[in-house]
Request: fold
Amino acid sequence: MTITVNGQPRDLPDGTSVSSLLAEMKLTPDRVAVELNRRLLKTERYDQPLPANAQVEIVTFVGGG
Reply:
């Protein structure tokens, strides 16, 4: 299936979840915010399969001082 991640098309196996997408991208779930089809996604929903043609935006948190 094809989805869009941060504006870029990406081919993924059917049934891919946000959790597995984050793992593939080497991102930690507690350090990101995920928007699915323009709606903020709660972390407890990260294990649900992504729909085909989904629009995913991933923002990473950066600490500093």
